[in-house]
Please model this.
Amino acid sequence: MAPRRRASPTIDDPAQAPLPGLPPATAPLPIPPPPSGLPGSLNCALNVCGLVSHALDEARGAGLSRAMVAAKMAELTGEPISEHMLNACTAQSHEGHRFPAQWLPALVVATGSYALLRDLADRAGAVVLVGPEAVAARVGALDAQMETIRRQRALLIRTYGVRR
Model:
């Protein structure tokens, strides 16, 4: 049997480019800027139409018709929601029809698409984290709190010489 080779340590070489499509390991989470507050800067009616349509298209790719999505949304909200109503919300030609905000959670659940929710959060200067991203963020926040408490504890012990 041949002797086992020693594992070589991984070396971060700043001159080496990351793999295509992957952010660098040290890439920070993109944080959207706060909203500008300029007149008209938060007008997102066209984006809402487009992203609702995008979510419905993604659902169609997964085998769900618009009628099926509407039925699931109606079931989740307890409101009457029809395929016709969704079509009206996605048509730019129907200026009087808006996608109601109270339908957004049902759209996410019915289609599995977070695109509209993420876009709206981004416009408000917030970030949407889902599943493992949310858990990792919470763990990071707890780690930061624990570090703050550890430093405060060490300061009190140094300052007052108190130990349990």
